[in-house]
From TrEMBL:
<dbReference type="GO" id="GO:0002935">
    <property type="term" value="F:tRNA (adenine(37)-C2)-methyltransferase activity"/>
</dbReference>
<dbReference type="GO" id="GO:0019843">
    <property type="term" value="F:rRNA binding"/>
</dbReference>
<keyword id="KW-0408">Iron</keyword>
<keyword id="KW-0489">Methyltransferase</keyword>
<dbReference type="InterPro" id="IPR004383">
    <property type="entry name" value="rRNA_lsu_MTrfase_RlmN/Cfr"/>
</dbReference>
<dbReference type="InterPro" id="IPR027492">
    <property type="entry name" value="RNA_MTrfase_RlmN"/>
</dbReference>
<feature type="active site" description="Proton acceptor">
    <location>
        <position position="91"/>
    </location>
</feature>
<keyword id="KW-0949">S-adenosyl-L-methionine</keyword>
<keyword id="KW-1015">Disulfide bond</keyword>
<dbReference type="GO" id="GO:0051539">
    <property type="term" value="F:4 iron, 4 sulfur cluster binding"/>
</dbReference>
<dbReference type="GO" id="GO:0046872">
    <property type="term" value="F:metal ion binding"/>
</dbReference>
<keyword id="KW-0808">Transferase</keyword>
<feature type="domain" description="Radical SAM core">
    <location>
        <begin position="97"/>
        <end position="330"/>
    </location>
</feature>
<protein>
    <recommendedName>
        <fullName>Probable dual-specificity RNA methyltransferase RlmN</fullName>
        <ecNumber>2.1.1.192</ecNumber>
    </recommendedName>
</protein>
<dbReference type="InterPro" id="IPR007197">
    <property type="entry name" value="rSAM"/>
</dbReference>
<dbReference type="Pfam" id="PF21016">
    <property type="entry name" value="RlmN_N"/>
</dbReference>
<dbReference type="InterPro" id="IPR048641">
    <property type="entry name" value="RlmN_N"/>
</dbReference>
Length: 351
């Protein structure tokens, strides 16, 4: 299996060219072909010699994604279902915001974390994606936006999978898309979300990155969180919050806590007060998320007026609270929904 061409940073391309006996400026050229012109074949790299183009084709795969389907929402949201080289399917979403276009990328085929409200966990984890396969999603989104003469403004690593269970590829992905010779997406325009893989949070704090960190919290106490998110058995809430405090202290960065409101499960006033007490005084943002309906799950959405009441209670604890704007409500824009529609009942069973 050849590696994907999107795996390397500019400095790594310079090293590769040196080993191949080529001038270092060839690294600039290939970065421009990949991320500036966004070519689909090595043959298009016309200012490279035929010999070099052939060596590149022999050593790397260029584009690992084949479009299965594209859904477009009335609000401008676009969702891609891509097929990978081995036949597995993943999702990527373009979300249009007031500040620009955001792309939500996938890091795993499926997920083993098992959050009970999420379609991504159906069928369990199949495999990790390589960094190149994740980078390719952003490049494909940019190719789509090229038609409208628009740009990718930010990237959220919140698609299918748990990024911190594919840690090395996720961090490499961030460094590649941040490279000034490539897509040059600023670190502060990148956010990664984790269900709470505690050792990786400590490790991430040491990376020296200015990337945003979001924690999928979804419960104000350990017992409820275990029922909603089995990952809390491995990494209890108390340990998770200790890791978050370390991250804040070590990086000076604020954490976002994501809280999916599920009708009758975690959305009552007592839950809001418990969450307010839990996070009071922390340098954090709480992002309330109306839960998406998943046919295979039995959860219902919290009524709108109750969402606002939940927000007001949290604000009484002097917390910064937002309600996530919904994207693509008329298409399968929620994480894992489109992939789930293309899975057979047998595929949805966790092996």
């Amino acid at each position: 299996m050849k590696p994907f061409v999107y795996e390397k940073t500019h400095s790594e391309w310079k090293e590769w060219m040196k080993k191949e006996g080529e001038s270092s400026f060839r690294a600039d050229q290939i970065m421009d072909w990949l991320y500036g012109k966004r070519v689909l074949s090595f043959d298009e790299m016309s200012n490279l010699s035929k010999s070099l183009r052939q060596r590149l084709a022999d050593a790397f795969q260029l584009d690992p994604l084949k479009v299965i389907t594209v859904q477009q929402s009335s609000d401008g949201t676009v969702k891609f279902l891509f097929q990978l080289y081995d036949g597995h399917a993943i999702e990527t979403v373009i979300m249009r915001n007031n500040y620009g276009n955001s792309v939500c990328v996938t890091t795993q085929v499926g997920c083993r974390v098992g959050c009970t409200f999420c379609a991504s966990t159906l069928g369990g984890l199949k495999r990790n994606l390589s960094a190149g396969e994740v980078v390719a999603q952003v490049v494909a989104a940019q190719r789509y936006l090229d038609q409208m003469e628009e740009r990718v403004h930010s990237v959220v690593i919140m698609g299918i999978g748990e990024p911190f269970e594919n840690y090395d590829a996720t961090v490499r992905f961030m460094r590649v898309i941040n490279d000034p010779k490539g897509l040059h997406i600023g670190q502060r325009h990148i956010t990664v979300s984790t269900s709470g893989i505690v050792p990786s949070i400590y490790r991430f704090a040491e990376e020296g990155l200015q990337v945003g960190l979001a924690i999928s919290l979804h419960a104000p106490n350990q017992e409820l969180r275990k029922r909603l998110m089995p990952v809390s058995y491995r990494y209890p809430l108390e340990e998770l919050l200790e890791a978050c405090a370390y991250y804040i202290q070590h990086t000076g960065r604020r954490i976002t806590y994501e809280y999916a409101l599920i009708g009758g499960k975690n959305d009552r006033s007592e839950h809001a007060h418990a969450l307010g007490k839990l996070l009071e005084g922390s340098r954090s943002l709480i992002n309330l998320i109306p839960v998406n309906h998943v046919p295979e799950r039995n959860y219902t959405r919290t009524p709108r007026n109750q969402i606002f009441r939940f927000q007001r209670i949290l604000q009484s604890y002097h917390l910064h609270v937002t309600i996530r704007r919904e994207h693509g409500s008329d298409i399968d824009a929620a994480c894992g929904q489109l992939r789930a529609k293309h899975m057979t009942p047998e595929e949805k069973k966790t092996s």
